[in-house]
């Protein structure tokens, strides 16, 4: 018999009892932020469950990790504590368990309708790194920025390329994004362009949330890297292509990226995603031994991007992709990140890179979908080359099980004009 909750959850919900993603929410605008898990159309308040003494396993009883305004303390406890929390919550929410089901006052205190809550960033993010792990994206960007002869540099096949991103401008889904101003390529002998970006884009990504982390000077073995990843979120790495193309030589992305990055509020755990694990693509050439994994895993997560122009009722799907298109795995990314001794800390974020598939309908950003503005995309009667003011970009993602889904909800943001 499939696991079932006493809370009614429809087959299309992203949040059945098989998922139980973690987030941070406020039940009322004035209440302090606290951890919760999503179950159907409700959020279960973990601070209430914790105060009621229901986390009674060896790792969590007596811990104040669910009385915090972010999940960092819980993340630092590591996989045994994460598994214990998941088992405790799956039991508490299951149809056969009376403790919460038959306690109306505890239910009233701990289950809040999702429509009423405000979601916040689930973690305090110390450091954020963005990888470049889709071969299709790397090739397409290479052709556009550097020409077809050297589309993908030989180093790309030997190591997961990345740059250090900016954590201060990471925001939760629903936060507006202000169109950045900056410099673009000069035309002819004139000075560089300066003004609002004319090539504002989204990048369809997911990001891994780091758990315990490692001590400075002590790299994480690639075969143990899975124990350092709590879960995944959806991520939009908003990108100003004109600023990026002019500034990135020779040090890489800077102001074309650092004006905003949006995360979905719910962290779906690797434990919930385990049924959707699949083989990662075969890597050729073979990676060096420190990147060679005994088991090389991806996850089958369908991803979709919609754009809703200002004043329109309906949004329009602009691309469909899948997390399983990535060439480098999250565990290889984490092992590579630490191989020089660099320490990762609880709540650090590792962006996957833009998740483009092989087909043009699966490209993960407008740069690729419109081939740097050479083509237009049609959206219910209007067209786009890059994003316009008022456009709302909505990502969604989920894995499909037998009669249920394990999903991420949405990750959205609306473009406001430059001041
Ligand atoms: O090819 C380039 O020069 C850069 C492409 C990117 O936009 C970098 C990036 O953010 C990584 C990614 O999303 O895959
Ligand atoms: Ca990116
Ligand atoms: Mg960004």
From TrEMBL:
Ligand binding (Mg(2+)): 237, 257, 261
Which residues catalyse the reaction? 137 (proton acceptor)
Indicate the segments forming the Fumarylacetoacetase N-terminal domain, all copies: 18-122
Report the residue ranges that make up the Fumarylacetoacetase-like C-terminal domain in this protein: 131-406
Q: According to its UniProt record, in which pathway does this protein act?
A: Amino-acid degradation; L-phenylalanine degradation; acetoacetate and fumarate from L-phenylalanine: step 6/6
Q: Which GO terms describe its molecular function?
A: fumarylacetoacetase activity; metal ion binding
Gene3D superfamilies (alphabetical): Fumarylacetoacetase, N-terminal domain, Fumarylacetoacetase-like, C-terminal domain
User: What reaction does this catalyse?
Assistant: 4-fumarylacetoacetate + H2O = acetoacetate + fumarate + H(+)
Might you give the EC number(s) for this enzyme?
3.7.1.2
Q: Which residues bind substrate?
A: 132, 146, 244, 248, 354
Record's keyword annotation contains Protease = no
**Which biological process, per GO, is one annotated for this protein?**
L-tyrosine catabolic process
Residue numbers binding Ca(2+): 130, 203, 205, 237
Q: Which cofactor does it need?
A: Mg(2+); Ca(2+)
Query: Which key words are in the record?
Result: Calcium, Hydrolase, Magnesium, Metal-binding, Phenylalanine catabolism, Tyrosine catabolism
Record's function text? Converts fumarylacetoacetate to acetoacetate and fumarate. Involved in tyrosine catabolic pathway. Catalyzes the final step in the tyrosine degradation pathway.
UniProt lists the family membership as follows: Belongs to the FAH family.
Provide the protein name: Fumarylacetoacetase
The scientific name of the source species is Populus deltoides (Eastern poplar)
């Amino acid at each position: 018999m499939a696991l079932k909750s006493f809370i009614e959850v429809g087959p299309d919900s992203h949040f059945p009892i098989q998922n139980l993603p973690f987030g941070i929410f406020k039940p009322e605008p004035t209440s302090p932020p606290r951890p919760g898990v999503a179950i159907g159309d409700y959020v279960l308040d973990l601070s209430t469950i914790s105060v009621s003494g229901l986390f009674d396993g060896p790792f969590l009883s007596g811990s104040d990790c669910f009385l915090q305004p972010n999940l960092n303390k819980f993340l630092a406890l590591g996989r045994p504590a994460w598994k214990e929390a998941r088992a405790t919550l799956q039991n508490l929410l299951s149809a056969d368990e009376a403790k919460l089901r038959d306690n109306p006052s505890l239910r009233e205190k701990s289950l809040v309708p999702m429509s009423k809550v405000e979601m916040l960033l689930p973690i305090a993010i110390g450091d954020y790194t963005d990888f470049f792990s889709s071969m299709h994206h790397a090739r397409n960007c290479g052709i556009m920025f550097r020409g077809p002869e050297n589309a993908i540099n030989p180093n790309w096949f030997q190591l997961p390329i990345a740059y250090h991103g900016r954590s201060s401008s990471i925001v939760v889904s629903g936060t507006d994004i202000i169109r950045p101003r900056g410099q673009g390529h000069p035309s002819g002998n004139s000075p560089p362009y300066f003004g609002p970006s004319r090539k504002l884009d989204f990048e369809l990504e997911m990001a891994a949330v780091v758990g315990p982390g490692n001590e400075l000077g002590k790299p994480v073995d690639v075969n143990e890297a899975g124990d350092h990843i709590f879960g995944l979120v959806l991520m939009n790495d908003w990108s100003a292509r004109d600023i990026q193309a002019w500034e990135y030589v020779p040090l890489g992305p800077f102001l074309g990226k650092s004006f905003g990055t949006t995360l979905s509020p719910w962290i779906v755990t690797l434990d919930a995603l385990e049924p959707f694990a699949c083989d990662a693509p075969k890597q050729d050439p073979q990676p060096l031994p420190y990147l060679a994994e005994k088991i090389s895993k991806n996850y089958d997560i369908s991803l979709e991007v919609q754009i809703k122009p200002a004043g329109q009722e309906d949004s329009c799907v602009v691309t469909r992709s899948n997390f399983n298109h990535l060439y480098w795995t999250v565990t290889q990314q984490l092992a590579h990140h630490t191989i020089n001794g660099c320490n990762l800390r609880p709540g650090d974020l590792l962006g996957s890179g833009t998740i483009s598939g092989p087909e043009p309908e699966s490209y993960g950003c407008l740069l690729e979908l419109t081939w740097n503005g050479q083509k237009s995309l049609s959206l219910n009667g209007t067209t786009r080359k890059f994003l316009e003011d008022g456009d709302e970009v909505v990502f969604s993602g989920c894995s499909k099980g037998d009669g249920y889904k394990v999903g991420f909800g949405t990750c959205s943001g609306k473009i406001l004009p430059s001041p």
